[in-house]
Design brief:
Elements: H1 17-34, E1 48-53, H2 59-70, E2 74-79, H3 91-99, E3 105-110, H4 115-120, E4 126-132, H5 138-152, E5 159-163, H6 170-181, E6 185-189, E7 205-207, H7 210-216, E8 219-222, H8 238-245, H9 249-254, E9 260-262, H10 275-278, H11 285-304
Parallel strand pairs: 1-2, 1-3, 3-4, 5-6, 5-8, 6-7, 8-9
Helix pairs in contact: 1-11, 2-11, 5-6, 5-11
Amino acid sequence: MGELSVKHLLGIKYLHEKDIQLIFETADHFKEVINRSIKKVPSLRDITIANIFFENSTRTKLSFELAEKRLSADVLNFSAAQSSLKKGETLIDTVNNILSMKVDMVVMRHPNPGAGIFLSKHVSAVIINAGDGAHEHPTQALLDSYSIREKLGDVSGKNVVIVGDILHSRVALSNIFALKLQGANVKVCGPKTLIPKHIESLGVKVETNLEKALQWCDVANMLRVQNERMDISYFPTTREYTQQYGVNRGILDKLDKEIVIMHPGPINRGVEITSDVADSDQSIILNQVENGVAIRMAVIYLLASKIK
């Protein structure tokens, strides 16, 4: 078994291509474990992991928790909504209090970009970034690439389009880093108002016409519109957005090939994607959910070797 080049998982930006391959090979092994009748392994019996979520999350939190329990770690769940942060306690104080309970690893979601990086410089525990603002969401990008690899055999050379709210999406940024690192061709597609200004500097092309983007791609990763991060209106109406950038059965049937449909969830059915697409044979959305547990098991297992 190899070793990761990083002590923390703060973003895909800090990984090498061989780190990603090691995570995928480890996830292959854990995927077999998940599908056994006894789904637990005793790998992390002496490790304590705290899940600290300063933003609401259902899927990511459950996925991490399940991954930790499958590895036999002790798990502490901390929800900031009910915490002393409401009383003015700082992030470092909160985490240090948790670490004084002899926690080895912290999985953190935070609304501020860079929160995980900041924390990694001030506490001794291993940090896994479960999403920091509109910055990065590394485990989501890893499970997305892993799902493409599983479906198409390889990520290298594949044409992947990320459709929707690129501007506010940490999933988009992490995916761009991960896909480029593995040699995929990447385009982003959405209303001009939702495409960041200098995105081409990351080596991706911009396409504002959805049908052209779908005709080009092997895989379309559909993002939801993040209304909770918008303080102004970026497009006239949801209905108009759906007419221009929503994927439905009719659009897919017009293409002269079959493409793979992905979505990081939660889905706004009928907005970015219709139910007959989300639930079709072309969709690997449920595979992404299953692969999320295997990928998170792999990341936690590999980073546990860095615990002093």
